Amino acid sequence: MLDGQVAIVTGGGSGIGRATALELAGHGATVVICGRRQEPLDETGALEPHGRIAGITCDIREEDQVDALVDEVLARHGRINILVNNAGGQFLSPAEDITPKGFRTVVRLNLEGTWLMTHAVATKAFIPSGNGGRVVSVTLTPHTGLAGMAHSSAARAGVENLMKVLAIEWARFGIKLSAVAPGVVATETFMTKYPAAFRDHYTESVLAGELVTPEQVAQTIAFVVSPAGRAISGSVINVDHGHDVSQVRYPPREIATERGSIEQEARRT
Ligand SMILES: CCCCCCCCCCC/C=C/C(=O)SCCNC(=O)CCNC(=O)[C@H](O)C(C)(C)COP(=O)(O)OP(=O)(O)OC[C@H]1O[C@@H](n2cnc3c(N)ncnc32)[C@H](O)[C@@H]1OP(=O)(O)O
Ligand SMILES: NC(=O)C1=CN([C@@H]2O[C@H](COP(=O)(O)OP(=O)(O)OC[C@H]3O[C@@H](n4cnc5c(N)ncnc54)[C@H](OP(=O)(O)O)[C@@H]3O)[C@@H](O)[C@H]2O)C=CC1
């Protein structure tokens, strides 16, 4: 499906980024992954049997490192067809305790880093090639407001709108941009980084009763960048078992009937 395509996946050394790199490579793409540390990148590369994944260290918040990464990929492969902006994250904190530096740190990573990568790949590769390209940015649900993550909620809203604006402006270059917004994903980071009570609550109370897997997010990204996803641009695609529309399990345990539903209202006589 992706034979001959060259992809960059940011944050490809772990979690969703690793699963995405493996998924794209499995469909024939040559994949360059980046992150701040070399070791996780090498671990991802070792999981791919055909040598289609290589890692290059890059902090996506640093303009000179982003430029160097894109130049290196072009020098090695001569083209870039796909960019997956997956690197991101945040720390959990009540909004009133987030310092200016902490807010800036999260916005720089999620919004500015995504902009730097997207702009560099578009201007150095997609536009000069005349062939356009595909961009998918990984964001977050719920879109109704992610309590405890004010900085990240704001940044991800910015990323989703950025994808929409660029989908309009860069349609003339054949560039398609979308966001894929996962719900709660069972990555090692999610399972180990957050306080146990927070993790356990959201693990147990998600609507579907199960977490999203990294592979499910990766398969959606692969579909969007595949020939079958050619008409997708300016979209936000949730991969979240309905987390965006209902943040609690249905029905609430307290009022569940034996049939696992809610009691039906009696008809008026
Ligand atoms: C109704 C609501 C329903 C909600 C349902 C929610 C369900 C759960 C959804 C969960 C979804 C999301 C999951 C995920 O995203 S999992 C993947 C997460 N992955 C990551 O976060 C990886 C990347 N993250 C990082 O690298 C770091 O977290 C960070 C973003 C902070 C960047 O790290 P960096 O090394 O650059 O930054 P520093 O550590 O130097 O910190 C810089 C300043 O940031 C502030 N800070 C950092 N950590 C904290 C903290 N724990 N508490 C408070 N402030 C923090 C601080 O100002 C740092 O500066 P100082 O060290 O000088 O103080
Ligand atoms: N897990 C979840 O429940 C959900 C996750 N998401 C989002 O999906 C994405 C991936 O999450 P997940 O796989 O769980 O998280 P991970 O923490 O496993 O992945 C984050 C990756 O990004 C890399 N990274 C972090 N900062 C930078 C940077 N400045 N420059 C380059 N690379 C960087 C990290 O590598 P290194 O440290 O070596 O730089 C790491 O490989 C994130 O944007 C996350 O917020 C969205 C919804 C839910």
UniProtKB/TrEMBL annotation:
Q: In which pathway does it act?
A: Lipid metabolism
Its recorded reaction(s) are: (2E)-hexenoyl-CoA + NADPH + H(+) = hexanoyl-CoA + NADP(+); a (2E)-enoyl-CoA + NADPH + H(+) = a 2,3-saturated acyl-CoA + NADP(+); (2E)-decenoyl-CoA + NADPH + H(+) = decanoyl-CoA + NADP(+); (2E)-tetradecenoyl-CoA + NADPH + H(+) = tetradecanoyl-CoA + NADP(+)
> Which Enzyme Commission number(s) are on file for it?
1.3.1.38
Keyword flag Transcription regulation: no
Localization per record: Peroxisome
**Complexes and interactors:** Interacts with PEX5, probably required to target it into peroxisomes.
Q: What is this protein called?
A: Peroxisomal trans-2-enoyl-CoA reductase
Q: Which organism is it from?
A: Svornostia abyssi
